[in-house]
Design brief:
The chain has 3 domains: 34 residues, no CATH class; 31 residues, no CATH class; 31 residues. Helices cover 24% and strands 12% of the residues.
Length: 116
């Protein structure tokens, strides 16, 4: 597993200027990270990843395809979409219609890297 994806590898804003393995104490004085100056509303153009619940796709015991998202703090249950086998092709076609050409290239490249 790549170290940057480990939960304990999460860094604070002041640590993000450091190269992996660098001495953070020596770099803190020269770091130019305006951590307290960022306004999430007015700097919306800088945001590249919106909040996204974790999502799982799996088969139910009865063979249906389930798309399930992790519930948020104000929900009692995980939201789920359940599709019968005979509707999956239409679902995938409709999803594909929503994807632009650049995204298709990224999907292709990702799948090629996985050996699929």
């Amino acid at each position: 597993m790549n170290d940057m994806f480990r939960p304990d590898a999460v860094k604070t804003a002041s640590e993000c200027t450091s190269a992996p393995g660098a001495d953070l104490a020596s770099q803190r004085d020269t770091a130019k990270v305006p951590s307290s100056d960022f306004d999430w509303r007015s700097d919306a153009d800088s945001i590249v990843c919106q909040e996204q619940p974790r999502t799982a796709v799996y088969r139910s015991p009865t063979g249906q395809v389930v798309i399930r998202q992790e519930r948020s703090w104000d929900q009692d249950e995980d939201p789920c979409l359940v599709f019968n086998e005979n509707t999956i092709t239409d679902l995938i076609r409709s999803l594909a219609d929503q994807i632009d050409e650049n995204c298709w290239h990224a999907i292709h490249d990702s799948l090629a890297g996985m050996g699929k």
